[in-house]
Design a protein that fits this description.
This protein is an alpha/beta fold and 219 residues long. It contains seven helices and six strands. Strands 1, 2, 3, 4, 5 and 6 form a six-stranded mixed sheet that branches. Helix 3 crosses helix 6. The protein is globular, with a radius of gyration of 19 Å.
Length: 219
């Protein structure tokens, strides 16, 4: 039987364009001696699976992440013209590995961390607080702000912060946990939260999808 011809739909090309844009903005992180602040601000188990498996990203989540990345690029371009240093790489030597982060924007006044959201939080999300605090400590600045950008309402909300060394030490301890888990090739314990329902690694984490069904990433 001759296979029926199925024309390419234009919307499929749009999805492909989003996926290509996503791949350009969010490249895989496979450096064994580098741990990223963004990884350990969020769930360690999720970070482990993203490091060791090729986790498929659903189209809807991919579009949302790409839009967030594009917002960053547009705003950071303008902030650069205002004298900010954007995507500034920050490092902290932990011994067997280096903790690395990229601050969204930094000038002589302080540090800005931009977060695009659909629903505006009443207070900073904990993982955003961990991340921004780490950048302030690593950049040795005394003031910072998390700036939430509402994709639904088009308004901004800012939360001023002062650096907290104890909170940074807590994040470094999480980085050590992830590094050790990667060395043992054993996933960290689950960290259940409301974010689980948005996590692409959730089916693997909870055992709904067998590991044999997912391609392991070469280390």
């Amino acid at each position: 039987m001759t296979e029926r011809y199925r024309p390419v739909r234009l919307v499929d090309l749009v999805r492909q364009a989003f996926r290509q844009a996503y791949n350009e903005m969010f490249t895989p992180r496979g450096e064994p001696d580098v741990i990223h602040v963004s990884e350990v601000s969020d769930c360690l188990r999720k970070a482990f699976y993203y490091r060791t498996m090729d986790i498929p990203i659903p189209d809807d989540k991919l579009v949302i992440l790409t839009i967030g990345g594009l917002i960053h690029r547009i705003v950071q371009k303008e902030l650069t013209g205002m004298g900010f240093k954007c995507e500034l790489e920050l490092t902290h030597d932990v011994g067997p590995f280096t903790l690395v982060g990229h601050a969204d924007a930094l000038n002589s006044i302080g540090l800005l961390e931009l977060k695009s959201v659909t629903r505006m939080p009443r207070e900073p999300y904990h993982h955003h607080l961990l991340q921004t605090n780490a950048y302030m400590v690593m950049a040795d600045v005394n003031y910072g702000e998390i700036v939430y950008i509402s994709k639904a309402g088009g308004y901004l909300r800012t939360y001023p912060l002062r650096p907290d060394q104890a909170l940074f030490d807590f994040l470094v301890s999480r980085a050590c946990q992830l590094y050790e888990a990667l060395q043992r090739n054993e996933p960290p314990k689950p960290e259940p939260s409301k974010l689980c329902r948005w996590c692409s690694a959730y089916p693997i984490c909870r055992g709904y999808k067998r590991l044999s069904e997912v391609v392991k990433r070469e280390r």
